Amino acid sequence: MVQSSKGRIDWGYNDLKDLAQLGRAIISEFLGTAILVWLATATCAQFRGNGETVHVSLTVGFTVATVIQTLAHVGGCHINPAVTLGFVIMGKTSALRAILYVIVQLAGAVAGTEIYKITTPENLRGIGLCSNRVNTAAGVTAEQALVVEIVLTFCLVLVILAVSDKNRRPHHGGTGPFIEGLTVCAAFLMGLRYSGVSLNPARSFGPAILSNYWEHHWIYWVGPLSGAAIAGYMYRNWFKAPKPQKEQNANT
Question: Residue 212: exposed, middle, or buried by beta-carbon count in 10 A (0-12, 13-18, 19+)?
Answer without folding.
Answer: exposed
